[in-house]
Amino acid sequence: MPEAVDGMSYAVPDDLRRVRAFVTERALALGLPEARVDVLTLAVSELTTNTLQHTSGGGHIRVWAENGRLVCDVVDEGEDRPFGRAMPSAEAVRGRGLAIVERVCDSVLTTAVPGGTLVRICLNL
């Protein structure tokens, strides 16, 4: 990860607006095409909402550009998230967030870190 990485923490639902604004601003500054900024913002919004719904400690986001990709880490105290899942049926009330993230991003990686989980999403610049 490059040294110049911008990040922010979030802990309550009222932080989600700031999260979306932060991610949008950083993505544009780092050269992500405007047409893809909404995709990134959607993915980060899904991940951070999951944090707030399924953990008690909030999380942290980091955003940077590297090797022709915009990289965004979402780190929280949650358990490892299962990716590679099928999209839930239209009748399902929940469970689409991670499936959406996986489909709109160019790559998704999840790994356990001390005290929680890191989800790294990447979009090609």
UniProtKB/TrEMBL annotation:
InterPro entries: Anti-sigma-factor_SerPK, HATPase_C_sf, HATPase_dom. The keyword ATP-binding applies. Residues 12-122 form the Histidine kinase/HSP90-like ATPase domain. One of its GO terms (molecular function) is ATP binding. It is an enzyme of class 2 (transferase). It comes from the Bacteria. PANTHER family: ANTI-SIGMA-F FACTOR RSBW, ANTI-SIGMA-F FACTOR RSBW-RELATED. This is ATP-binding protein.
